[in-house]
Amino acid sequence: MRVSAGLPTGMEGLTYPIPFSDPEAVIRIAQHAEKLGYHSVWGNDHMTTQNYVRAEFETPPRFWEPLVTYAFVAAETTTLRFGTGILVLPMRHDIVVTAKQLCTLDHFSGGRLEIGVGIGAYREEFLALQPGTKTPRGKIVDEGIPALQALLTDRVASFEGEYYAYNDVELYPKPKQDHVPFYIGGNNANNLNRVAKWGDGWLPAAIHLDQVRDSVSALKDLTEAEGRNFDDIEVAPQYIVHIGKTREAAIESFSKTQMCAHLTSLRQSTLKGQGTLGHEDINLIGTVDDVVERANQLGEAGVTHLLGLYFAANDITELLDQMQIFAEEVVPRLD
Is the Cβ–Cβ distance between 196 and 226 less than 8 Å? Predict the structure, then answer.
């Protein structure tokens, strides 16, 4: 099972306090991940502050644009891969410019890019960029994925859609990698259809073990119906990690983090399917033994990559320590 770490490109005020992720800290986290043997780091994509964050913090959070951030991460690392977890297509109006940035980044990093795309967790953020629109974000993503992939693969590409259009574009050079891994994020069942059609991997967030089993079964059927080999698809959910000496201590410590408040806020959107389950019932929270057991259960359910794990912490030192505990005490015991 692959294991990768979350990079706080846009997490101040959401999962971490303000201030937290200055540029030096972001680079330090990436270098720490490389040293500890993590496969990759994954950063998210935000353009404006969410309403509940504005209400809680007087100082605005720093949201770093992920592709520009990765250019600096690439220069400060050598083997670490990095992925967009996720790049929010409805906020990326010019798909040609986005494709050019991705190709450029893949070359200058030596072929270490992975791409994750999706709808985004906050509709309010989308509406701030396109006020008054009634456009369903899912329809934008359904156009955006093939529009982006054509630019990355076709010598000359054209696309005519309702939300994206370009004509006779020779975007060159193509990515350095023969094929850049392409993940589609989101918990909604519609995203399973998108993965089956276009994706190399499925990237949901904090879904219960039972839902993983059911979704993997459904995704297998959908993928095979598209004439594709399911064994080529990565099942790569993202979870929160917080490890303590006892399960009770870990849960209590986690409850005092900004990460806990963030997950609670997402129960109105991305995580609305969780019902009354506690965060500790879904995520990797507890002792080392607890986390190993849950991670291996996820592997048995079909998970192939614990992608972009976010380590709950109130400061950088605690985050780095949690990353090290997981790498040294959990990863060696994963099946």
Answer: yes
214 is written with which tokens? 């059911």
Confidence at residue 272, expressed as pLDDT on a 0 to 100 scale: 65
The full DSSP string for 4-67 is EEEE-SS-BTTTB-SS---HHHHHHHHHHHHHHT-SEEEE---SS--HHHHHH-SSPP----HH
Strands 165-169, 157-160: pairing kind: antiparallel
CATH classification at residue 194: 3.20.20.30
Distance CA 199, CA 219 (A): 11
Burial class from Cβ neighbours inside 10 Å (0-12, 13-18, 19+) for residue 242 reads: buried
DSSP string, 230-258: GGG-EE--B-EEEE-SSHHHHHHHHHTSH
* pTM of this prediction exceeds 0.85: yes
- Token look-up 């259809």 returns 193
Domain span at residue 251 reads 2-333
Mark 257-274 as b/e (b = at least 16 C-beta within 10 Å).
Answer: bbbbbbbebbeeebbeeb
Report d(CA 59, CA 72) in Å as an integer.
25
Name the 3-class secondary structure at 136.
Answer: coil
pLDDT of residue 262: 79
Neighbours of 300 (CB within 10 A): 11
Structural domain count, the chain: 1
Are 3 and 309 in contact by the 8 Å Cβ rule? The answer is: yes
pLDDT of residue 6: 98
Mean pLDDT in runs of 10 for the chain (335 residues)?
Answer: 98 95 98 98 97 93 98 98 98 97 98 97 94 94 98 98 97 98 96 98 96 98 98 97 97 93 73 71 97 98 98 97 98 97
Backbone angles phi, psi at 270, to 5 degrees: -55, -40
Residue type, 215: S
